[in-house]
RNA sequence: CGGGGCGUAGCCUAGUGGCUAAGGCGCCUGCUUUGGGAGCAGGAGAUCGGAGGUUCAAGUCCUCUCGCCCCGACCA
């Protein structure tokens, strides 16, 4: 490709709003262009990188026996109604009506579509195990897109789906994906950590997320350096201390003026925070049998020294979603904000973290401003579901080995879910087993955000001059900078390299050397060749790797094999860095 | 959905009631220049996001509206 013909242009200044370096360089180097909030065009450079990522994914999916296909972005709403997600997912799912008034949705994922198709294709155990995938556009009307390609509304996702006759088969395909994903991210050069995760709207039980650790990440993940336990904070377990006591003391109301927070209460009563119980009030959205939505107050109780984890609370409460409750809503259920506890409450779901359930004689709100009870005890004084709803914190004890864990920020670039039979049952995707028995197909679902992966790579691979993407995903392999005004040498070299199958971006522009060098660093192709009068007189060109400072003088006659060797070496470095990971 | 910020040429910005909206980068033409974002000369490019209003006069003030960014809520 000739720089003089490239459709996009490089920018000297970052457009306003480019808040991270990776995003800034993607814009400045002309990889992407924003069209609306969370809506981006991939310009030719960006498109080439994305295609390379897709090809890596494609190869690895094919290696697992996946069959590529393509499912439609627009789905009839019926199938989404059958699985219930038409009703349980909020505005993130865009709905519209076609010309005759039929409900339609823009697919934000394809469990419904793939299951509906599989229901027609699969009817025998002999057809499984089976796996299909596609790399396709998704639309999710996220309330707040941000950080360039990290969180967008329209994006490309690889999603694969597995079909098995039993759970054992699913586990095999799941484990195969688990390893395959490490290979994919490894081949792209992206370091990732797999963490146990919340299955969220997907349903199902087992799920992992692949996290690129970065301070700009929006997820908090918990890591035990000692034994390797990792989990998204939304589901992270940790070893809790309990404080049972032999004697359950009598509950007693005490006046505690101005103690609406746990800190104030503990100080006022002169007790440690762990001797108190904290209440969080959320409004949960539920769906009844007629698919009508209704709200119910969800009360989470955790011991005062811990915090509640909303995702855990939502899962335990089996709510579609949670939002912070307003004061009137709390009072309507017989509780008092700031002085609240489930004692005497009504019409609400009470979830009690085991930290509070298994600790005795805690101080809790008396549901009356300025008053608390002391010596409250779960089951004696109030009921509810005992579960783990506490949030893991920096230094919390590992649930596996007991050593302190730490928190990190991460960006989710991929996820894998064991769906089970949730979708096959609701969409009637059944098969006959070897005994002729009808059973629902056991499914798995596996995603990778292609654009987000590129965004993470640009966060990982840049310096103060621009991008430096790994050769496996860079838009071209070689940047040929010509400083020659007259003569056919640059054209000949460009042709020789291209003829040898090397991907070359050839800067044939009339601009000054400074402009060309700066652009070459900004775009950051892995290998840079400079052809100038200075070295051409000696019959040589200069070769430099983007990530290194040293320049090499290479005679023109040897340049093609030299570059081929450099490419092979860079590719080998990536291969060598890939570690095998198994579940 | 709550809070904050910003919309002036492809990009960055100035202009805070008064003459024909200013500058830098980029772009076009010509000449010169060519190993680190060149120089000179000439030129094109803006219904100042949109609508309404106040005023003798609005990019500037007011109202509404649309869009974008950030924080929070939310989210695979």
Detailed description of the structure:
The protein has 583 residues and is an alpha+beta fold. The chain has 16 helices and 29 strands. The strands form seven sheets. Strands 3, 7, 8, 9, 10, 11, 12, 21 and 24 form a nine-stranded mixed beta sheet that branches. It has a five-stranded mixed beta sheet with strand order 16-14-15-17-20. A five-stranded mixed beta sheet has the order 26-25-27-28-29, sandwiched between helices. Strand 28 and strand 29 form a beta hairpin. Helix 1 crosses helix 12. The two termini are 43 Å apart. The model has no long low-confidence stretch (mean pLDDT 90). It binds one RNA strand of 76 nucleotides through strand 16, strand 21, helix 14 and helix 15.
Number of beta-strand segments: 29
- Biggest sheet, open or closed, and with what strands and sense? 9 strands, mixed
Number of helices: 16
Average pLDDT, all residues: 90
Fraction in helix = 25-40%
């Amino acid at each position: 490709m000739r720089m003089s013909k490239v459709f996009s242009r490089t920018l000297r200044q970052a457009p306003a709003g480019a808040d991270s370096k990776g995003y800034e360089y993607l814009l400045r180097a002309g990889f992407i262009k924003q069209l609306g909030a969370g809506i981006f065009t991939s310009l030719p450079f960006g498109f080439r990188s994305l295609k390379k990522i897709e090809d890596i994914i494609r190869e690895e999916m094919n290696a697992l026996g996946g069959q590529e296909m393509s499912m439609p972005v627009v789905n009839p709403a019926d199938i989404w109604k059958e699985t219930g997600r038409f009703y349980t997912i909020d505005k993130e799912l865009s709905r519209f009506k076609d010309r005759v008034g039929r409900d339609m949705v823009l697919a934000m994922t394809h469990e419904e579509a793939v299951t509906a198709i599989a229901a027609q294709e699969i009817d025998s155990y002999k057809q499984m195990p089976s796996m299909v995938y596609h790399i396709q556009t998704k639309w999710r009307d996220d309330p707040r897109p941000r950080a360039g390609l990290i969180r967008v509304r329209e994006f490309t996702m690889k999603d694969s789906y597995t079909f098995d006759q039993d759970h054992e088969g699913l586990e095999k395909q799941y484990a195969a994906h688990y390893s395959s994903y490490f290979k994919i991210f490894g081949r792209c050069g992206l370091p990732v950590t797999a963490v146990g995760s919340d299955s969220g709207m997907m349903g199902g039980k087992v799920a992992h997320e692949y996290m690129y650790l970065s301070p700009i990440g929006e997820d908090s993940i918990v890591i035990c350096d000692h034994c390797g336990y990792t989990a998204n904070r939304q589901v992270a377990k940790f070893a809790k201390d309990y404080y049972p006591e032999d004697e359950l003391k009598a509950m007693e109301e005490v006046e505690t003026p101005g103690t609406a927070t746990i800190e104030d209460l503990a100080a006022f009563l002169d007790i440690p925070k762990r001797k108190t119980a904290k209440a969080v009030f959320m409004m949960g959205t539920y769906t009844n049998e007629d698919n009508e939505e209704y709200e119910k107050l969800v009360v989470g109780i955790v011991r005062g020294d811990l915090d509640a984890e909303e995702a855990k609370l939502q899962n335990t409460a089996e709510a579609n979603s949670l939002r912070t409750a307003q004061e009137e809503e709390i009072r309507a259920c017989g509780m008092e904000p700031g002085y609240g506890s489930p004692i005497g409450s009504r019409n609400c779901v009470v979830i009690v973290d085991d930290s509070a359930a298994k600790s005795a004689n805690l101080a809790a709100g008396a549901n009356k401003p300025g008053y608390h009870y002391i010596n409250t005890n779960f089951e004696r004084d109030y009921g509810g579901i005992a579960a783990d709803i506490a949030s893991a914190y920096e230094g919390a004890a590992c649930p596996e080995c007991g050593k302190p864990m730490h928190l990190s920020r991460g960006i989710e670039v991929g996820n894998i879910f064991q769906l089970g039979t949730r979708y096959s049952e609701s969409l009637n995707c059944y098969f006959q087993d070897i005994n002729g028995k009808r059973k629902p197909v056991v499914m798995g679902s596996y995603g990778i955000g292609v654009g987000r992966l590129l965004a993470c790579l640009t966060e990982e691979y840049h310096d103060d001059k621009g991008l430096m993407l790994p050769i496996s995903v860079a838009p071209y392999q070689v940047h040929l900078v010509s400083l020659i005004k007259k003569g056919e040498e640059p054209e000949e070299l460009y042709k020789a390299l291209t003829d040898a199958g090397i991907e070359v971006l050839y800067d044939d522009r009339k601009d000054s050397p400074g402009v060309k060098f700066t652009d070459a660093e900004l775009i950051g192709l892995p290998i840079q060749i400079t052809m100038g009068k200075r070295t051409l007189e000696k019959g040589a060109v200069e070769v430099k790797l983007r990530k290194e400072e040293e320049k090499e003088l290479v005679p023109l006659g040897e340049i093609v094999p030299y570059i081929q060797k450099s490419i092979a070496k860079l590719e080998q470095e990536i291969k060598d860095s890939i570690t095998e990971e198994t579940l």
